[in-house]
Amino acid sequence: MSWLADTRDSYDTVAESYAEFVADALEQQPYLKAALTLFAAQVDGPAVDVGCGPGHFTAYLASLGVDASGVDLSPAMVGLARRAHPELAFEVGSMTDLTLPDASVAGVLASWSLIHVPDDDVPVALGHFRRVLRPGGLLVIGYHVGAGTRLKTQGYGGHPMRVHIHLRQPWWLARRVRAAGFTVEAEWSLNPENEVSQAILFARASA
Ligand SMILES: C[S@@+](CC[C@H](N)C(=O)[O-])C[C@H]1O[C@@H](n2cnc3c(N)ncnc32)[C@H](O)[C@@H]1O
Which residue of 33, 56, 113, 120 sits with most ligand 1 atoms within 8 Å of its CB, as the best mutation to test the pocket? Predict the structure, then answer.
């Protein structure tokens, strides 16, 4: 699929500058930090950070005592994550083809990574999240709110990229999350004053 190759190559290109860009993300974004802290408190077992980038959120979860690991499409991102956090496990992989065993984790974090998956493939990714989660496990998705798709052709210091960002309405995503076998428990709005706001969805895997 060309979107997968484009996304992987784009994040390979910007991996180093992205890591610098997000280095103090949690200090800059207290509400996001609170969401991750809540996720850590709710998760009773291993958790996987899908689309983990350079592993900064994976490491934050681990610092709170979570048995956290990461998966990312970009080998360069995974390389950075492994170097920065050698005590944690990071693997290259796509959320559309997760290789984790069934019911093997108690938490899935997809922080601004599902935004790159085209609408038609969202049920595939959500199906994998549900498959790898134990019943009662927690799914947290961070995303951009809106409608339509934006093509990002450069970023993080002007590096060339070719990555699509799919904006989503909360009802649109919640409907698909429910259809994948989850109960939506909460939805947080972040930066509601921005032209493109962000949101965090919390959902529980059904029994
Ligand atoms: C905007 S970054 C977010 C990184 C980190 N989760 C954060 O919130 O800062 C998007 C990340 O998702 C990864 N990604 C995109 N599509 C993916 C896919 N299909 N499977 C796994 N990771 C993916 C990219 O390689 C990139 O590292």
Answer: 113
